[in-house]
Amino acid sequence: MHKTILAMALAAVMAGPSLPARAQPATTTQPPVSLQSWGSFHVGGREVVISGQPVREVLFTPGGVPARVDPNGTYLMGGMYAQYMIPASPRGQVPLLMWHGGGLTGVTWETTPDGREGWQNFFLRRGWPTYVSDAVERGRAGWTMIPEQTGGQPVLLTLDNPFERFRIGAGQGSYQRGEVLPGNQFPADRESYLNFVRQVVPRFTTTDALTLEAYLALLDRVGPSVVMAHSQAGLFGWRAAQERPDKVRALVLIEPAAVGDIAKVAALRNIPVLMVYGDYIAQDSRWPTIRGNGVRFAEAVRAAGGSVDVVDLPERGIRGNSHMVMMDRNGDQVAQLVQDWLAAKGLWQ
């Protein structure tokens, strides 16, 4: 009897916390998307010189011949990856650049953890040329483990961290309890949540200058665009618009985690801005302050003659949104709100 109970307990531990059962996505019969072009490129980066490091021999393949590796020399770091899809019949007046948040990559926009189409598809189907990027030191942008250049160590996330920090679960320990915030729209069943965690990558908190340089290089290459930025990328959206006001036609910030340069708010006066915030913010330990900082910065932009619309989704009757708004089950409803705003600004025909 005791062996049976022990076996059941061990099975429960191995299975992980009891998250909600997976809700099957509704089957849709979306028409195919017709593209005039589809490709990718890398942009940005700077050359750096490393010296004083020991030479070593490395065996790259088991059973192979060791190779002499000299780590001293010139490296290229700080580049960025971008993938573009241009619809056959564009309706967006300019391209839509989609910038992901911290510890993530462009996958944020491509799909959802439970297999639905992501916002890239949503806006592509409406005729927007889309550019989805992987920022510096993330995903396909490449990786440079040179502490003297990155300025720090990468931050890694445990399995429960996003569940609790991204306003999916109900507070500390909620992942282990399998407790989702009431009415939460994120696909939090175990299979979907693990699909999301598989997208998480290491991030630096010390490479903002390199990242901004790369985003500016992206804008210089693509030209006038709408910038859509999520979370950490809110910083880069604000700053890029301030540094390239002639290249940013509109700024869409989905739960921006930072603000721009208060000394340069006047540079934003001709750029319409939309800020979107999800649900459960008031009861969170961090997000009331983050949102408050964003709203105060928006007020400073308005005082300088700019236009900023702040949307709190629950006030629009759109409830249950986590920090990962674009992945929530009602994400397309929010995407339509953004689409309508862009059309009202004359950026879509």
Automatic annotation (TrEMBL):
UniProt feature coiled coil, ranges: none
Transmembrane parts of this sequence: none
InterPro entries recorded: AB_hydrolase_fold, Carboxylesterase_BioH
Keyword Cytoplasm: no
Signal peptide: 1-23
Keywords noted in UniProt: Signal
Stated name of the protein: Esterase
